Amino acid sequence: MRATKSRRQDVLPLPVETGEVLADYLMHERPGSAGAAVFVRALKPYDRPVTSTAVQKVITRALRRSGLPYSGSHVLRHTFAADLLERGSSLKEIADLLRHRSLRTTQIYAKLDTPQLIGVALPWPGSVS
Questions:
Q1: DSSP letters along 71-126, please?
Q2: pLDDT tens by residue, 61-111
């Protein structure tokens, strides 16, 4: 496993469906390779692992094709965090999934849509509406 900027490794549960898809990929789709990497290049040379830079480039091209304003591959982390928050996950749960040590970092990722919240917020108890 490659070293990350946090220099730590975390073990997260693997949902059954994800495991099944990975197993199918390894048995039927993955190009032959002597390397131990799970994800390898689909183009020659096949036996090289897919890099994080390659993944970022795929995401960048997909974002451009979608017509959405480009904001980098980190937009996926921000979207994931905001979606979890919207579904009721706590900041601590989101921080754990994003591997953040600080809840302040998670707050940056899990931005709230304040105008939308104002539209659905209940008046403060005892206030005049």
A1: --TTHHHHHHHHHHHHTT--HHHHHHHHT-S-HHHHHHHS---HHHHHHHPPPPTT
A2: 888 888 877 677 778 888 888 888 888 888 899 898 888 888 888 888 777
Distance of CA 41 to the CA centre of its chain: 21
Contact between 102 and 108 (Cβ < 8 Å)? no
d(CA 85, CA 55): 25
Q: What is the tens place of the pLDDT at every residue in 27-49?
A: 998 888 888 889 988 888 878 89
Please report, in angstroms and rounded to a whole number, the separation of the first and last CA atoms in the chain: 57
CA 83 – CA 109 distance, rounded (Å): 11
Give the pLDDT band of residue 115 (cuts 50, 70, 90): low
Q: Which residues of 82-109 are buried (b: 16+ CB within 10 A; e: fewer)?
A: bebbeeebebeebbebbebeeeeebbeb
Closest CA to 105 of 114, 89, 92: 92
